[in-house]
Amino acid sequence: MEYLIHLSIIGCIFSVFAQSFNFAFGLGRLFNLAHVSTYAVGAYTAALLPTFLESNFSITLGFTSTLLCAAVFATVTSIPLAAIAARLSGDYFAIGTLALAYLVSNTLTNWRSLTNGVLGIAGIQRPIFLGGLDTNDNLNFLFVLLIISCLVHMLFFSLSRGALGRRLRASAEFPQAASACGISPVNTQGLTFVISAFACGMAGACYALYISFIDPSSFGLEEMIAILTVVVLGGPGSVIGCIFASFGILALGEAMRFIPFAPSVLGPARQIVYALILFTVLWVKKDTLFKTQRVI
To answer: Is 173 within the bounds of a domain?
Structure first.
């Protein structure tokens, strides 16, 4: 039972992380390789900020306050992304975000006085949820995450079907026509990064609070490959597909535990499988992966 609760918690966190990336990449075709850095900022904020405030100002953050603070700090990291998107597009944008991802990764590794470097941060405490609910009980923690993940998925479903989703698709497919119709691609993409980063920061905070230990290796390019695999497998822009693909990829990774690999081989084997799935889907659906929708 505890194992199923654990998988459900990880699945909720993973699906919110993937959904936030799906919104920008699936609808706006913004290949943001720094998305995992936003996830890391949310995680480190949840790990460091409550302790800092309590020790220096005697301020105790609750669960909701911790998530909101982490989401706000992660949103701040989306400002450079919006600036990059305003000046670069396509492959150049991906390269620019990759540089930003390495900047954040090196900061987490080398700013030892703050992040403890490669040794990471251990013993992260879970705050009390509204009403005094003890989140140290994993079942209660799962209950909280189910509420959060459902709200996030409903929000992204509404946004993808609403005016912002239509403006984002129009800006991605034909920015000149979108501008002619009064749509600002720069403003639309900037708002997209803010919303995406907010949800991603919350996912990172939930991950840190649940695992109780984080280090820079938890937020590497391998995580981006897994998230990209989820979005491509579920269908770029598909909210429902992203949810099913998130839990499917998670289940596949867990099923590989029962194959008699050496412990040091399991991680690389998962990455190979994810890469094969990604390559296969891209090869099979290379002409239909992004459906053209004239919805200006």
So the answer is: yes
Backbone angles phi, psi at 37, to 5 degrees: -70, -40
CA–CA separation, 66 and 53 (whole Å): 11
CA 168 to chain centre: 19
Contact 43, 205 (CB under 8 A): yes
Model confidence at 175: pLDDT above 90: no
Query: Does the residue 207 lie in any domain?
Result: yes
> What distance in Å separates the CA atoms of residue 63 and residue 230, rounded to the nearest whole number?
28
Question: Which residue, among 110, 238, 258, has the nearest Cα to 246 in the 3D structure?
Answer: 238
Gap between the Cα atoms of 290 and 293, Å rounded:
9
State both tokens at 185: 């691609």
pLDDT in tens, 8-65: 999 999 999 999 999 989 888 888 888 999 999 999 999 999 888 888 887 888 889 9
Measure the CA–CA gap between 252 and 229, rounded to whole angstroms: 12
pLDDT tier at 171 (50, 70, 90 boundaries)?
confident
Residue predicted with more confidence, 82 or 39: 39
Instruction: State pLDDT tens for residues 112-126.
Output: 988 898 898 998 988
Return the residue matching tokens 């403006």: 167
Q: Is residue 86 part of a domain?
A: yes
Handedness of CA 151, 154, 155, 156 (dihedral sign): positive
Distance CA 228, CA 275 (A): 10
Strands (E), the chain: 121-122, 213-214
The tens digit of pLDDT for each residue in 124-136 reads 988 888 777 888 8
Q: Which domain holds residue 54?
A: 2-284
Q: Which residue has the tokens 């302790």?
A: 51
